[in-house]
Write a structure and sequence with these properties.
Length: 432
Amino acid sequence: MPNSLRHGALRMTAGLALIGTFALAGCGRGDDTAATGAAKSIDDSPATGTVDVWAAQGDADVLDDVIKPFKAENPDLKVKFTLIPNAEYYTKLQSAVAAGKGPDVAQFFPESQAQFLDPSILQPVPDGLVAPDAYFKSLWDAGVVKNVAYTVPWYAYTYALVYRSDLAKKAGVKAPAKWDEMVPFFKSLQGAGAKRALGADTGWDIFNGQDIAMYAWQAGGSLLSSDGKWTLDTPEMADAIKYNASFFTSGAADTSTPTFLDAQPYFTSGKTASMITGPWVIGQLDKAAGKKGWTASHVATAPLPAGASGSTSFSAGGSWGVLAGSDNSDASWKLVRDLSKPSTQVAQYKAYSSLPAVISAWDDPAIADQPLLDAFLTQLKNTRAFPQVTTWQQVATRLGKEMEAVAKGTESAEKAASNVQSYAESLGTGTE
């Protein structure tokens, strides 16, 4: 499993769109969710020539080994990988694209790729290359603008509840199914011996804003109206902010700790007893505990508790696109098609624990036989994409900062929602 910095790296890459975003018109996807573009189809003949691939360091580190079968089937093809540090990736890609010197294939992040979804930057996904319904719907939707798909999902993640099953058993409680059961559940875990029940995210940044978006959906709210206007000062958004703040005002979570590097040691030591986090932690907890098999006997997972409108989470992960200026689009799309095969995605999981974006790949025993991943599969089937507008990253960041004031009791949820709405309106959506 990836090292303990992976969570931080994923959080970093999710926010990179803040840096030097393209001022593109028409990048908002609104309610468009279907269809690939009108590009010519890609046949089954061998791929030839050279394909230059850029990707962020992390999940892509193992790709050269993962695609060995593809390279063996296409001996006249050379695939060149350029792996770029997460903190620099989008900035370097944007600069290369602007200079007309981009790669053939580039990795993107469904949660922060809006500024690239334009025919001047990416080619439409060719008709028939892949089946859109093979993927988690929200991940596919994240690459679609005005009924044209520009990216193909590669790996997937979302958030679920990870908690200390031994403490829950001691307290005689089950995982909460509804919002109003969350704080009582936390209190029970504390009564069973945990100092704090929730090892909360206290960065007060874009990622907290993403959490609030998730809770707003659960409350029945939306982030954008059907005509593309920000809708952030609603009762549902205020409810979402209050719900998150209740974790802190109840004493279940601390407003300043743990940090990323402390999160897992806190959890394994009992300083905290739960996390709202992604699936990568599952394979890291034995190491944090210093004992093989610790996770199996101490940890459980559950889908997120439901608000008034359900338990929707957000979808995130990795995706692939072929740049408009590619000199070898035929071979590039053949590589992307291979990366989306269930067998290739299972190989990627075995090599790096990247969970598949193709739903059928989850049936492989390597994944299906791990019960702690079940909650993440359930949750991935109930996800939405963040707004595909170029200013969402800034708005989410401001939302995270407003959350801090509410959690610390210096601002009301209603005032926070109003402040974010005003800020978002001042930015617009980048689609006007």
